[in-house]
Give the backbone structure.
Amino acid sequence: MAGTIGIVGAGSIVERYYLHALRQLGYADILIYDKIEVRSKELAQQFGVRQADIATIQQAADTIIIATPPHTHFDLVNQLLACNKTIICEKPFVLSQEHALLLNTKAQQIDANLLVAHIRRIFPGIQLAQQYIEQHQQELGKLQRVLLNEGARFNYKSQSGYVRNHPMGGVLADTGSHVLDCLLYATGLDLQPISCTLQSVEHNQPEPSHEVTCAFQINDIPVQLRLSRYQALSNKMTLQYEHATIDVPLGIKPNIRVIANQTSTIHSAATSCLTYFSQAFREELRLMLQQPDEHRFDAKRFLNLSAVLETLYKA
Amino acid sequence: MKTIAIIGASGYVGSHLVKVLSQTGKVTAINRSPESIYKKIAGVDYIGINQINGQFDIIINTSFSADKEPQQFEQENVAMLKHIQQMSAPHTHIIHLSSLAVFGFGLDIPVQPVALPNRTDYPYVSSKLHMENVLLEQFPNKQLSIVRLGNVWGPANQSWTQPVADALVWGMPVLHATPSFSNLTFIHNITSYIQFIIQSETQQTFHHLAEHNNITWQQVITELSDHFQYIPQPIETVPFYPKSLAEEVNHAIMLGPVKMLRALKSGRFTASGFPSFLLKALVSVKSIVAQNTTNNPLPPYETDPVFHWVLSASKPFTNCLLEGWTPPYNWEQTSKQTLNWLDEAGY
């Protein structure tokens, strides 16, 4: 495949997904940089790609994937955005609405493509929910309440240790950003102006915190969010509409449950990425690389997420 | 106060043991990487496996080399044995937590409280069996207790409780037509039994713990589905469970070339010896397929076959326990705690 890909960051996600997918898609010219040089060297050798510095990546790469800890995203995207380039930023983009706006505006001004890889948008249950809600808006009525629960015994060891050491390494920016993005994407709230008001928030410890419970409102919709790195929770999003309740899996289950008129109905996605996640990831990466315009990961669709995360973080 | 080392302290059983045993003993919680333990208990030392220094009165091994390729588990087990040897003195009591899976996921090997020879099986099974034998070869019976656990159940359990609840919530097949043995053991009964072993004067090498083995999956699932008010979906076809290499290969051949290679790579009798040249061939085929397909639809959802084999178990995992121990939690209490957790967890 033609084109040079630059990767900034040599953490687990790059090793487990991006490099495998790029190789399978046939990209031959791949540059990789990490501030921990030994790490980028290790991956360069393992996958037969080239180690490079940031300046070389900036100059030579047509597409740059930024897969570094969240607190570095704004500076790196800002530095690397350039005319005719595509930048793919790993989640959670940036944790301030102002920064999200600045980067989007800059991308538009210089005709660059800016994407945010909130990969759960491709999960079959999330896609099914998004389509169902879009198609049944009138029958569903108004969204009245949202419950979000996600937790698991977390034993992830990041290469840089940011999940333990940096204020933005907590569960809120990490899996919490995925959960909030699933809500905004499935309900279409990522595409319309919103306001976000915090009501209460509890952390198990100062950031980076590993358990968070909070209540807030998006527009006038009450949302309860519970996240844990300590214990398993239901990993479920419950959307209570005026005339129906929809349960949506936050993981990779392919079904949703719609409860209306005292009847509970399961709707199933035609496909699954439970067993085939790497294949699903690769296909989405292909689309990001080859058709970045109007992609569902367009950074313009993450302004609201940044605003919600900023509100929750300010507390 | 006894010194207790718990290896695999971030796991479900390991973390519960740390909590309970730290109330009466001096506990050192050991993990491959101490940075991967997020919830720590005051008074407990948390260290990495390579930081072990000193010997202990009791060593409890709950670890399993889960992230390694099937071909690597033997060396991982031997490496773990060396760590355990380094931590043990002649008086040390080693309690190794194993699994009913050593009798096969389909419990097709006769269930007896005896040593089993190493055999080719699914990598998880072979690895569990191999670790038992590695310990049996190195430690005298008076020093070693091997506790084969039934299917572990309890609040926030990600092995069985959560998957069964998920299957109900998301309308996936979960209920076998004929009564099947759950072979469950409740987490708080496990910690109680381990405490009992530690305090007991009687030494016994093999223990089988599945105090709720007489509860059927049908009862468990009915209780949960009544609580949720969901209708459990039937398991219409139990996935193929190979009893021999010939059966497995015959079945794989019928799947076509790519699926056949994948099936053999994770097969019961073929995974451990899957040749590297075939693995490379599989990767190459997948790469070629990947490069020549655009928007290729993903295949339909596939349930993990182990899940359905266990939910349709026709054989009980019979208990073999020290005399004098009574499970502190009967089924009613077990069920109540589980349902409470499901509510708290947002199910």
Notes: The first strand of chain B starts at residue 3 and ends at 7. Residues 123-138 of chain B form the longest helix (16 residues).
